[in-house]
Each structure stands twice: as C-alpha cells, then as structure tokens.
Amino acid sequence: MQRTLFLYLLVLFVSISSNSQENNIIVTKQSVVFKNIPFEDATPVIYLLSSVKKGEDIIIKGSFDKKIGELVFTPEFPLLSNVEYMAQFKNDIKYFSLQDKNLQSPVVTAIYPSSNKLPENLLRMYIQFSQPMKTINNLEHISLTNDKGEVIKGAIFNNVYELWNDEQTQLTIIFDPARVKTGLLAHESYGRALQPNKTYHLTIDHLQDIYGNKMKNAHTKTFIVESEDKRSPDISLWQIHKPKPKTHDTLKIDFTDAVDMMSLKNRIQVLDVNNQIVHGKIEITNTEKSWHFIPHHKWENGDYQLYINSRLADPSGNNLNGLFDHEFGDLKYDKEGKIIKLKIQIN
Q: What is the rounded distance in angstroms from the CA atom of residue 173 to the CA atom of residue 122?
C-alpha cells in the first residue's frame, strides 16, 4: 500500500507540473520510444496508470530494446487509446498515453454460428465488433437467457484471459466444455446449458472499445436449440465445384452440415501445381455450409491440392479426427493436426 501511495503521489505531482505528454516519448499502439534516457534508468516497469490509482498495480508486459540514444518498449498486446500509462524508472517516472480519438460507438457486426438453429452440444460462438475492443471484464456483460428472461448460469465458461483475435475485434465465447461433454461431473450434476426445443437469447451490452466508447444499444441473438450433433465432418460428402483454368473463378465446397467459422478460415489451404500455397480471398456463406476461395492470380492447368487439417471442426467441436464427446480409442488418427490431401484437377 505504501508503495502504491508513493507512486500515486508521484504521478499526481508530475501531472500537476505538466499538462502535456513529454516530447521525448513517442507512442504508437505497437511501441513506446523513450529518448535521451540515462543508461542506469534504461529498464523501467510499465503500468496502466488507472490501475495504479486503484491500487491494483497491473504491469504491462513486453520487451525492451536498447538503441543509441533511445529505449524501445514493445508491449505484449497493443496499447489502448485515451488511457494513461506510467513508466517507473530507477531514478525517474514518466507518463504517456496514446491519443487516438474515435467517437463512434462500437456495434456487433456478426455472431457465429450465424444460423438461428443450433445444437444442444454447441461448444463455441464468435462475436465480431465494428472496431477494436477492450479485452478484459467483458464476459460479465454477456448473458444467456431463456424465453422467461431467466439467466442460464454457468453456461459460458469464464476464462481467466478472454479469447480475442489479434485485432481485438472478435471475441470467442466457450460453452462450458465440462457440461457439454458427457461423463464429467459438471455434466452429470447440471446437464447441458442448452436444452432441445427451447429458445435462448444471447445478449451483449455495455462493452467498451479501446477508445472508451460504450455500445449504445444491446445486441441480441435469438436461437432455437436442436438435438445434439453427434456427426463428425465427413470429407467424402463434400461437394467440390472446380473453377476453369485461366480465370479467377471461385473454387467452392458445399458441406452437408455447418462447419466452425474459424475452421473454414484457417484449416483449409489450396496448393498449386508446384506445391506452393495459393493466396486468395475466402468467403463463407450459407450459414457456414459453403466455402468459397477466389485466387489472387488466375488458375493454371494442372493438379492442385486441398490441404485440410484434421482439426477442422463443426460448431460442437466434432472434427475430422472424431467426436468432441468421444470414447477413449475412438479417434481416427493418433495425433491431432494430421493433414488430409485432396487432389483437384483443373483443366
């Protein structure tokens, strides 16, 4: 407490002495450059200033790089805008902030799975936002209710660290796996959070972006629960529509059932006739039952290949290797992540 009080008083003194950020500090989301720092002071501790005022002493993790005449700090995660940070050196203290005003309120742009009919053993959902969001204390503002307005407690797994993408625009929420998977204590005691033939409402409200703007209106996804999904994705049932050579035609795959959105983005690769990765744009349509790939360059005549990672899964976590709720010894492959290759002849 004494240390925290000292830091706070020191910051308060510095704040009173100067109303502007020191001109020898350059701040971006990815780095902080301190210029003309004495050698003996060159390894500071970086704090989020508001947390110091609250006595929490949250340290901002990152790495330091000493260069001629300057010290560069690279944070583990991008710095937040419009909040104050403090660098505590051995013999000095400096404060700084990233001023990046955005007055627009954030909104939810999409929620996956996008279907309004979801299985009772649903494992994960993805919530996408219009701009980068703060990445802590958000799960308390996301609720699951039934048609009576009752909150379904313990449905969403409360991660120690929230699952955000690098751009901080997509949050992954997990339905408690211990309740989804049968045979575990939580499942036997409480059952699955989602029950067949019932309607649920996932509501997101009061989340803030990195600029401090709150959502103006709550966003709610309403869906009906169907019986559990106990089928793994089956490549033999996929319908592959080949493009024509010398064109930018779309390579299409239609699935019998919905596939996890992130699997569709990351678990399928196209390799060309020289066994090199083909770069292009991926589009996901038909409530995640269709995968479209548009190449940056025209298709050539010859044998292409699809590299499909066996971790490709459906929204219930069933993947090409087997069911999420599998029995011991039921998996197809010894190791997860096996690459399955499909030849596509373009002519």
A: 11
| 90 within 8 A of 41, measured Cβ to Cβ | yes
Cβ atoms of residues 44 and 87 within 8 Å:
yes
Judge if pTM exceeds 0.70.
Answer: yes
Rg (CA), the chain: 25
Query: Are the beta carbons of 279 and 298 closer than 8 angstroms?
Result: no
Residue 299 pLDDT exceeds 80: yes
The pLDDT value given to residue 18 = 34
* Residue in the structure block whose two tokens are 């050539």: 300
β-pairing, 32-35 with 25-27?
Answer: antiparallel
- Sorted by where each begins, the domain ranges of the chain are 2-97, 108-226, 235-346
Q: Are 320 and 289 in contact (CB under 8 A)?
A: no
pLDDT tens-place string over residues 118-144: 999 999 999 999 999 999 999 999 999
CB 121 within 8 A of CB 229: yes
Q: Is the peptide bond before 196 cis (omega within 30 degrees of 0)?
A: no
Instruction: Give the pLDDT confidence of 70-84 residue by residue, as tens digits.
Output: 889 999 988 887 778
The one-letter code for the residue type at 232 is S
Q: What is the CATH number of domain 108-226?
A: 2.60.40.1220
Mean pLDDT across the stretch 191-215?
92
* Spatial separation of the C-alpha atoms in residues 15 and 125, rounded to whole Å: 43
Identical fold, 2-97 and 108-226? yes
| Amino acid letter for position 122 | L
Q: Which whole number is the average pLDDT over 25-40?
A: 84
Q: Is 218 helix (H, G, I), strand (E, B) or coil?
A: coil
Q: What is the dihedral of CA 192, 194, 196, 202, to 10 degrees?
A: 180
Class of domain 235-346: mainly beta
Class of domain 2-97: mainly beta
Residues 210, 100: Cα–Cα separation, whole Å? 9
Average confidence score pLDDT of the chain: 87
Mean pLDDT of 217-224: 98
CA distances from residue 179 to 150, 155, 175, 176 in whole angstroms, order as listed: 19, 8, 8, 6
Question: What percent of the chain clears pLDDT 90, i.e. is strictly above it?
Answer: 60
CA of residue 153 relative to chain centroid, distance: 23
